[in-house]
Amino acid sequence: MTSAIPLRALPETGTNSLLASTRESAGVQLRGVVKDYGTTRVLHGVDLDVAPGEFVSLLGPSGCGKTTALRVLAGLEHASGGEVRIGGRDVSGVPTNKRDIGMVFQSYSLFPHLRVLENTAFGLRRRGVGSTEARRRAGDALDLVGLGHLADRYAHQLSGGQQQRVALARAIVTEPRVLLLDEPLSALDAKVRVQLRDEIRRIQLRLGMTTVFVTHDQEEALAVSDRVAVMGAGRILQVGSPEDLYLRPASAEVAAFVGTSSLVPGVVSGDTVEVWGRHLPLLSPAADGPSDVFVRPENVRIVGADDEGVDAVVETSTFLGSVRRSMLRVSDGTVVHVQHAAETRLTPGMPLRVRVDDVPVLARVAAESPAP
Predict the structure, then answer these.
(1) How far is CA 5 from CA 22, 141, 151, 160, 186, in A?
(2) CA-to-CA distance for 313 and 332, rounded, in angstroms?
(3) Strands, E assignment, the chain
(4) Tens of pLDDT along 252-269?
(5) What pTM was estimated for this model as a whole?
(6) How far, in Å, CA of 366 to CA of 368, rounded?
(7) 26 Cβ contact list (under 8 Å, min separation 6)
């Protein structure tokens, strides 16, 4: 197991050459990008705009095409159709080493025979930077990720989190105009993942570097991104701020993947849907009639026995520290999740009553196949 690494404050001012860099980040555009492997199409006309200095995550389940899209952007895969632009320039036919990008992979890919400083300086030396200057800049990059004191160690002497920090330092030391991150935290334990994801975000904000981050972890994407592009089956389903995706999902697929939802029966009529006797506004139009309604756990409320609502029985209850998450079976057989105060202890079999908050919800035609 990797060990936790104390976070260090980044220098506000001073001599760090990366912080003092005047290089401008570049915007990124994918225009109708298609990728085929033989007769199988894995990207179906992907369009995406990333502004200079923006942090955008590609989020989706395994096999949705997010890593393929990143590899096309990096030049590691050739698009079967469409256009890739970096800084306004079409780079569709430009090799990876000419695209002015930095990349961090899931695997650390450090050279075992080189020390940390030499690993970090490798890209600079390949670009013809002199030994003294390369060592200085590599030292600055290591200071930025909090590993300057480990410059003389080898990769096998580092924890997993430390090795990934070295990989990040190696990616940013060349001062690329775009930074690409392909699930860089998935091999780390939970505590180190949170620490490193927050550190990546702080460094990105400090450097102002355009960043595209691939992950299947929704919490990770929502925590660090300016915007998130949710992907499914080789297409972008919705692009928006973390708040937009969670509070205003554009489709059942997005609502099902981003956050936790319960599907409860309702009846749509016009621009509202009736759920448990309450008429809730719809996020988007839906056909009149029986519907499945997406309800978030924090919008299910435990109420008094005589209050408006429906009867339910507790099935399970999980303590999550600051809150509890309980699973209830409503009188009509529907299973719903409710998030409530940690002090409210519920036990299996306990009867209670619940209602849904008056918030906008997403509905779809009842008995439709579950979203992937």
Answers:
(1) 30, 17, 16, 10, 17
(2) 11
(3) 28-37, 40-50, 55-59, 81-86, 89-90, 101-104, 178-182, 210-215, 227-232, 235-240, 262-269, 272-275, 278-281, 289-295, 300-303, 310-319, 323-330, 335-341, 351-356, 362-365
(4) 999 989 999 999 999 999
(5) 0.87
(6) 5
(7) 52, 86, 87, 88, 100, 177, 178, 210
